[in-house]
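Sharing a chain and its predicted structure for anyone who wants a worked example. Both blocks are below, sequence first, tokens second.
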Amino acid sequence: MLVYIIRRSLQSVVVLFVMSLIVFVGVYAIGNPIDILINPQADQIDRERAIAALGLDKPLWEQYAVFLRGAVAGDLGRSFVHAVPALGLILERMPATLELAVAAMLLAITFGIPLGLWAGLRPDGFAGRTIMAGSILGFSLPTFWVGLMFIMVFSVMLGWLPSNGRGPTTPLLGIPVSFLSVEGWRHLIMPATNLALFKLALLIRLTRAGAREALLQDYVKFARAKGLTNARVIGVHVLRNILIPIVTVIGLEFGSVIAFAIVTESVFAWPGMGKLLIDSIGVLDRPVIVAYLLIIVTMFIVINLVVDVLYSALDPRVRLTDSKG
């Protein structure tokens, strides 16, 4: 296990290096932040002074070399707009995004797996058909439109929930969280539900398909022939065997929830990393954009490693070795 983790870590370093090069070149090749950050009435001397202060007077390869040296030391550059370290700016917003992503995935898991299992066990019943019809809606409805409808119904028409913001936060192990207060939950429930709908629909369909396939396997028929209760057959033999692909999807979708919560954060004015990214793109704040993308890549790498380790725990046939096969 240790050798496997070390090998994966070395591979991750290579992936991060390649991604940093692609992201840096891609972001720095688009637009000129000076045109946005500097007053159009400024003279050429002021423009040149600002360009030199931001390090934009150097060739692209030299800018990347400076960035790479800083990245090795944990410095991903300073924000052009806020004049603070880009990494610190993103980490300041990260708790809000993680709280939203965790709440969304918990909703998706809590309802998606049981509903998918129910639909798989009773595919021809009214409830099973209703669940599958609902999952199609979850796939089809645009996230931004659902968010706007939530605001229209629950905030404007009924006045039950606040339409934007995160609400009051409480320090938990030094991290500000909002779920420890009723008002925080009132702010969290709509964006979390909006973000969870697509993942909920995905887990329902994945669990249903896995359950339908597992019920036809010989080990399930043998378990029933032994006289095991239906609950034990489903809980031990069916659910445990379909958890492997489900765990994979949950891991990858959790990463995508963090990375692509941008729409939901924008609709509900949730002060997370996605909202920061949108604001940074609007003013071409290159260091923040690059730092955000590299942090997201790092998260995906860590999540993939955790998923592989969970594979081994869920299925004894899966063994993590240092072989390349």
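Comments welcome. The longest strand covers residues 170-172.
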